Amino acid sequence: MYLIDKATKWFIKKDYLELYHPENDDIVKIECEKIDQLWKIILISKSYKEIIFKVKQQNIDNIFNEKVINSLLNQLEQKKYIVSKVGE
């Protein structure tokens, strides 16, 4: 485990990108699906059902890097792309 974003305190726990937030015990799983030249990235957590991002990348390995993940986590923290809260 290593700190990926000091502001949000999210950690990468596993190679397939399961992220853990120590402050609220939230776990986020990231799933990807390629549609033409876009990768659709879906974040699923306890707090939020799903948050969808679309990223132009040729290779899945280029998505799962620190810069992109930091950007996704910042957007998650700012709640810009929330689809719906669980239970709503």
* Largest sheet, strands/sense/barrel: 6 strands, antiparallel
Structural class comes to: alpha+beta
The H-and-E topology, N to C, reads as EEEEEEHH
Number of helices, where a helix is a run of at least 4 consecutive DSSP H or I residues: 2
- Terminus-to-terminus distance: 32 Å
On the 0-100 scale, what is the average pLDDT? 53
C-alpha Rg, in Å?
12 Å
Protein name: Coenzyme PQQ synthesis protein D (PqqD)
Describe it for me?
This protein is an alpha+beta fold and 88 residues long. The protein has one domain. 19% of the residues lie in helices and 42% in strands. It contains two helices and six strands; from the N terminus they run E-E-E-E-E-E-H-H. It has helices at 60-63, 66-78, and strands at 2-5, 10-14, 18-21, 26-35, 38-45, 51-56. A six-stranded antiparallel sheet has the order 1-2-3-4-5-6. The protein is globular. Mean pLDDT is 53; it is low at 1-17 and 79-88. This is Coenzyme PQQ synthesis protein D (PqqD). It comes from Caloranaerobacter azorensis DSM 13643.
Present the secondary structure layout.
Layout: E1 2-5, E2 10-14, E3 18-21, E4 26-35, E5 38-45, E6 51-56, H1 60-63, H2 66-78
Gist of the model:
This is Coenzyme PQQ synthesis protein D (PqqD). The chain has 88 residues and is α+β, with helices and mostly antiparallel strands.
